[in-house]
Amino acid sequence: MSDLVKRSLSLSGHRTSVALEPEFWTVLDMIAMTRQQSFASLVASLDATRPPERPLASALRVAALLHLQKRLETSG
Question: How do residues 14-33 score in pLDDT, each as one tens digit?
Fold first, then answer.
């Protein structure tokens, strides 16, 4: 795996940053493109639906994983 890449964004009017592996950012960018929404909008929607005890970085990784799992299920 590669080094972490940090991205900064605004969520609910607050600036925050998240560090993930580039591979996760690639999948998250793909999800946003597939849903025809901005990256910030995607992260905001995932942030709004995550359990309070789950860190944002973890929620983003899980969303990327679930997206790829769904794609594998539909292609197989």
Answer: 999 999 999 999 999 999 99
